[in-house]
Design goal:
With 383 residues, the protein is mainly α. Among the domains are: 163 residues, no CATH class; 39 residues, no CATH class. 88% of the residues lie in helices and 0% in strands.
Length: 383
């Protein structure tokens, strides 16, 4: 109780009383100086408080951002690990499916080839017999076996479009490309007459040989050639039939001929395995996003909560201190304006002028506040 009494007395003594500027101007100026110094002290502490509040806020926000980043990174890494785990299983399963599919395709292709070979075997055998028949005719008639060859048919009796095309290309090669090639690469400098000579020699040599062989075969064994042509046409028809048969077999969608049930069962099993892995991955990711992710977030936040709360509390303390000092600054400003400035003037509301006026009063150069202010201003003018 006594302490409270003395505190109230001290505050009462510090508070300027009505008329003190007249009754005791020195004490009035001392109180004004003390209040002004107190105001400056509040301003200094306020600036320090603002700086501390800013630093505390930045430290809190930096740590909070670091915690958020840590949470997001951890969640991202865990999710990536989870996806990679299932992706590896899915990839392995896909590899097995690919291998099984390749084996099935190989078995199917083998079956198709075997089926084509089986179903075209009669036609192949017939062609073999036809070729033997053609050779037998040549032997029986005493004709050269050359007549039974494909090369003879191309040169003298082509029966298909391909054979006609080959004959044209042979003629172009022998009677056009060969002479021109010899001339341009070997005899171009000799003149155009050499080109004519090459053409003449080419025609005589190859043309003569062609006519000679034709006379010795087509001209002499006309009936043998005629029968050979008929047989070759049958052989070509059989080959076309075999190609058509092969196309039909390859287009046939019925795979029951190839015994692929075992491969299909394995593929179905592997496909189901991969689908199960995909479904497990989707469920695991859904569970991670709805449950595990929040658990990770809570674990990290709980681990970092104490440090963040300490930083936040420090920030709040500095904020409260700043608010308190701002209030004190406003109150002190109002008090200075209301109790002192109206008597002393804004011009002289600084520590230097107040100290100078106190000194004037102490030296007895003035007796009142007004006189003291005038003396101070006179001294300023003198300076």
């Amino acid at each position: 109780m006594n302490d409270r009494f003395f505190r109230e007395n001290r505050e009462e003594r510090r508070r300027p009383k009505m008329g003190l500027e007249t009754e005791n101007p020195k004490l009035f100026l001392e109180q004004a100086k003390a209040e002004l110094e107190n105001y400056h002290g509040i301003q200094d502490r306020l600036q320090e408080s603002l700086a501390k509040e800013k630093d505390a806020k930045q430290a809190f926000e930096k740590d909070r951002a670091a915690v958020t980043e840590k949470i997001e990174k951890t969640i991202k890494d865990r999710q990536k690990e989870l996806e990679q785990s299932y992706d590896q299983k899915i990839s392995q399963s896909s590899g097995k499916i690919k291998k099984a599919q390749s084996e099935r395709d190989a078995a199917k292709n083998k079956g198709i080839k075997e089926r084509i070979a089986d179903e075209s075997a009669p036609l192949k055998q017939e062609n073999i017999e036809l070729k033997r028949q053609m050779q037998g005719i040549c032997k029986r008639e005493g004709a050269p076996l050359f007549i039974a060859s494909k090369f003879f048919a191309v040169l003298y009796k082509p029966v298909s479009f391909v054979e006609v095309l080959i004959l044209i290309l042979l003629f172009l090669l022998i009677f056009a490309a060969l002479p021109l090639g010899l001339y341009f690469f070997l005899l171009k400098s000799k003149g155009i007459l050499f080109l004519a000579g090459i053409y003449l020699l080419d025609i005589l040599l190859f043309g003569g040989l062609y006519v000679f062989v034709g006379n010795r075969t087509v001209g002499k064994y006309r009936e043998v050639v005629k029968q050979s042509i008929a047989i070759r046409k049958r052989i070509l028809r059989n080959k076309k039939s075999m190609k058509a048969l092969a196309r039909e077999i390859r287009k046939d969608s019925d795979e029951g001929h190839y015994n692929l049930t075992e491969y299909d069962d394995e593929l179905a099993c592997l496909t189901q395995e991969r689908n199960d892995f995909i479904a497990q991955k989707q469920n695991a990711l859904h569970n991670f996003e709805t449950v595990s992710q929040e658990i990770i977030r809570d674990e990290i936040e709980n681990a970092e909560r104490e440090g963040l709360e300490a930083l936040k509390a420090e920030w709040q303390r500095n904020t409260e201190e700043r608010i308190s000092l701002e209030a004190a600054e406003r109150e002190t400003t109002l008090k200075l304006s209301k109790e002192f400035e109206q008597y002393i003037g804004n011009k002289h509301m600084n520590v230097e002028d107040l100290q100078a006026m106190i000194q004037i009063l102490e030296e007895g150069k003035a007796q009142s506040l007004t006189e003291t202010i005038l003396k101070l201003e006179e001294g300023d003018k003198t300076l």
